[in-house]
Design brief:
By secondary structure, this protein is of the alpha/beta class. The protein contains 16 helices and 24 strands.
Length: about 550
């Protein structure tokens, strides 16, 4: 029998290096993370997604890997990882680890051997051209920072392809030896207790590049990887990052035999458009347009992550609306398409709007993913370059350095948020764990509610017509159970008129932005505050 545990999971994403330092060297590590697992377990999540922790020069947040079979020395040892994995399992927490297989670091032994000898078996691990390809500046991932996707290597006397930074040469997925290496890497970490892999930059992983012809996609690779994964461990999953056009999404799921979970980038962007407008229609329309998934497939829903809030699937005018509402200053924007701020800063540290955003997240069809620190309302540091403002150290206590490390804050490798509104003196885990009304404890209750509403993870969504236009009305049904969830995206309180409810049907309040007068039976009018939310059981 298949274990589809991911259908009703809640995921927490973190970077080991910025979470908790146990030995005072100024860098988080696996011993520190293991010591803080109770914080994660208390939140109620049952899966951790770990950002890259492999040996790396660290030029791209660990996504420039030099060794896929080890732990970066500053983060600990393989033994530390195994002990951490064991401690997580004792708390019912599964592990998904990042798998950056689109590219390696230029310092990886494979690339060093490939560039040194054209006859090396590793030469075909990468993509080369004897001449500079035409249009080499097209397709850069980081406009304004990255100039080209081809770089000339003096040692190799050839041009190599890199979709990302020039220090990250792309692996050649068309090479069977590369695919075998990837299977070995996956098998290795499965043996150490991992339950899944997040495939970074999935569209580029399967992008087959030759200088003399247009790129093609090899989506069947995901099926091969899924087969290997299922053979080694039947309940392990693939979670993919693929910010692509709606028409391409089906290639990643296939008939249900490829990717298990796919981040819902398009839905994420329309959620922020709906918040900016104070109207439900952008989110409602996007939900209605989502393709129907194969039986074992699932969306992964999120608000923020370790990258910019990417708005690239929206029109220029729509992006402008979101910038005006949430990131009006140029220093808050990035790459001409995104916002480099944490959730609390985007929403002006407004508790009502933060609760609304989280309630929306947990009511979307799929598996919710939380970015570390957002459970506290952590801020960012816009003085840092590119995507780094949202990658500051976790804030544990109202002490110097936020309790992240025994080392003085001035000597930490990663930054601590220092401003008065978002710094550890105002935002920290210890204080919020003790305060029953804190954002952390509110979110803990929402996580437990979401896990109890199996209809959202397993069932079918119906979008009910509702007025005024600020109201999003969702009904989920599964095996004779139903939940009704209402959100008011406007700041104005209203009486929501919802169509499609059965007159006289029993309503049981499950959760809301406040305690409303009890409403025992469904009818067409339900009171809801500005930026309010109400969850009901339908009987």
């Amino acid at each position: 029998m298949l274990d589809l545990w991911y259908k009703n999971a809640a995921v927490y994403s973190l970077n080991v290096a910025t979470y908790k330092d146990s030995d005072g060297d100024g860098v988080g590590d696996f011993k520190g993370l293991a010591a803080q697992l109770d914080h994660i377990a208390q939140l109620g999540v049952n899966c951790l997604w770990l950002l890259p922790f492999y040996p790396s020069p660290g030029l791209d947040h660990g996504y420039d890997v030099t060794d896929y079979y080890n732990v970066a020395p500053a983060l600990g040892t393989l033994g530390d990882f195994v002990e951490f994995s064991h401690q997580a399992r004792l708390r019912g927490i599964r592990l998904i680890i990042d798998l950056p297989i689109n590219h390696t670091s230029e310092q990886h032994a494979w690339f060093q051997q490939a560039r040194a000898d054209p006859e090396s078996p590793f030469r075909d691990y990468y993509v080369w051209s004897d001449t500079e390809p035409e249009n080499s500046a097209e397709g850069v991932v980081f406009p304004g920072v990255q100039l080209s996707v081809w770089t000339y290597d003096l040692c190799a006397r050839s041009w190599y392809y890199h979709r990302f930074y020039q220090h990250q040469p792309d692996l050649n997925i068309a090479c069977s030896a590369v695919r075998e290496e990837i299977f070995k890497i996956v098998g290795f970490w499965l043996e150490l207790g991992v339950s899944g892999f997040r495939i970074d930059a999935a569209p580029f992983v399967v992008e087959e590049i030759r200088p003399d012809r247009p790129p093609t996609r090899r989506y069947e690779f995901f099926g091969e990887l899924r087969d290997f994964l299922s053979w080694r461990r039947g309940d392990a999953v693939l979670l993919a990052e693929a910010n692509v056009a709606p028409a391409e999404l089906g290639h990643y799921f296939g008939d249900g035999s490829r990717i298990h979970l796919l981040f819902a980038f398009l839905l994420n962007q329309h959620l922020f458009l709906a918040l900016a407008r104070g109207k439900a229609e952008p989110l409602r329309a996007c939900l209605a347009a989502l393709p129907r998934l194969p039986a074992f497939a699932q969306w992964a829903q999120f608000l923020r992550n370790h990258d910019e809030l990417d708005l690239g699937r929206l029109t220029v005018d729509e992006r402008g609306e979101i910038y005006a509402a949430f990131a009006p200053a140029l220093k808050m924007q990035l790459y001409g398409r995104g916002i480099r701020r944490r959730l609390a800063c985007i929403l002006g540290n407004d508790r009502q709007r933060m609760e609304l955003a989280y309630s929306l997240l947990f009511s979307l069809p799929g598996t919710p993913v939380i970015y570390y620190g957002d459970e506290l309302g952590m801020g960012d540091n816009l003085a840092l370059p590119e995507r780094w403002p949202v990658r500051t150290c976790m804030q544990w206590a109202d002490v110097e350095g936020g309790g992240f490390s025994p080392r003085p804050a001035a000597r930490l490798l990663y930054d601590i948020v220092k401003d008065a509104e978002y710094g550890p003196c105002k935002v920290n885990a210890v204080a919020q764990q003790r305060d029953p009304e804190s954002l952390f404890n509110w979110l803990r209750r929402l996580v437990e509610l979401r896990k109890s509403c199996l209809e959202i993870g397993w069932g079918d969504l119906s979008l009910l017509p509702a007025h005024p236009l600020s109201i999003l009305a969702q009904k989920f049904a599964w095996e004779g159970r139903s939940v009704l969830i209402l959100h008011n995206l406007s700041e104005t309180e209203c009486r929501a008129h919802v169509e499609g409810l059965v007159a006289g049907q029993k309503l049981t309040d499950l959760f809301g932005n406040r305690v409303y007068p009890s409403k025992r039976h469904a009818d067409s009018a339900i009171d809801i505050d500005g930026y309010g939310y109400r969850w009901f059981r339908l009987d």
